[in-house]
Amino acid sequence: MYGPALIGVGLIVLPPVALVLRAPWGTFVEQISSSSSLDALRLSLITATCSTVICLVVGVPMALIFARHDGPIIRVLRALVLLPLVLPPVVGGLALLYTFGRLGIVGEHLHAAGVDIAFTTTAVVLAQSFVALPFLVISVEGAVRVVGTRYEEVAATLGAGPTRTLWRVTLPLVMPSLVAGLVLSFARALGEFGATITFAGNASGVTQTAPLAIYVSAIDDPQAAIPLSLILVAVSLVVVVGVHSRRRRGWAGAV
Q: pLDDT tens, 203-224?
């Protein structure tokens, strides 16, 4: 039992450790503070924040509907919404291109109206939202199902309307899972690569996020891509530790 477990831990832990050991520490600060790295990091943080807000606005209502209703249509819609979890990101980017690109089913009408989305910063946000949204929906939907409808029914008997019940009863009960879903969505958006490069391209300062900048650097000099990679590893580690700690506090509070 311990042998396979150690192999699994090594498979996950050794690659980040290798990045640390092979990092060019002598020029680390210089490479991280270069204009191209700062632009990529800034764009990644801005677009990931925007996509997380979009996930919050559209994801919570979707999760509530999926948790409170059942039937063939809901099941099909739920499966389609969760599709980006298993879909190759490049395929997702191609689908977005044929939806919102100039020749897409929606994009051709937008282009006729003078609006182009593909290969812009907006396309980056859409690509990130596409891959990150299922993480929030799954997290919130599961929490709503566990909580059930008992407290909402009590609130209704006391005269609370649906809107007040949502804000004063339902959302506070699922808040830990909502926060966890938001953090995971942000982390997924921050690390998005395949859908972004397919739908938004790789224009420096416009659509080149940190993962794309790492990819470009790694083509010419793999070691030059390590500093920016370590920054993303650090951010991801903070996210994972934060979510895990919050869940442990939630379990302790429940006990």
A: 888 999 999 999 988 888 888 8
Task: Look at residues 93, 103, 102 and name the one whose alpha carbon lies nearest to residue 126.
Answer: 93
Between CA 218 and CA 3 the distance in angstroms is 34
Measured CA to CA, the distance from residue 117 to residue 188 in angstroms comes to 21
> 73-128 pLDDT, tens per residue?
999 999 999 999 999 999 999 999 999 998 899 999 999 999 999 999 999 999 99
SS (H, E, C) the chain: CHHHHHHHHHHHHHHHHHHHHHCCHHHHHHHHCCHHHHHHHHHHHHHHHHHHHHHHHHHHHHHHHHHHCCCHHHHHHHHHHCHHHCCCHHHHHHHHHHHHCCCCCCHHHHHHCCCCCCCCHHHHHHHHHHHHHHHHHHHHHHHHHHHCCHHHHHHHHCCCCHHHHHHHHHHHHCHHHHHHHHHHHHHHHHCCCHHHHHHCCCCCCCCCCHHHHHHHHHHHCHHHHHHHHHHHHHHHHHHHHHHHHHHHHHHHHHC
| pTM of model > 0.90 | no
Residue of 17, 45, 63 lying closest to 187 (CA atoms): 45
**Max CA pair span of the chain:** 67
Residues 47 and 128: beta-carbon distance below 8 Å: yes
CB under 8 Å to 144, separation ≥6 — which residues? 63, 64, 67, 68, 170, 174
Do the beta carbons of residue 199 and residue 97 sit within 8 Å? yes
For 117, the token pair is 């989305």
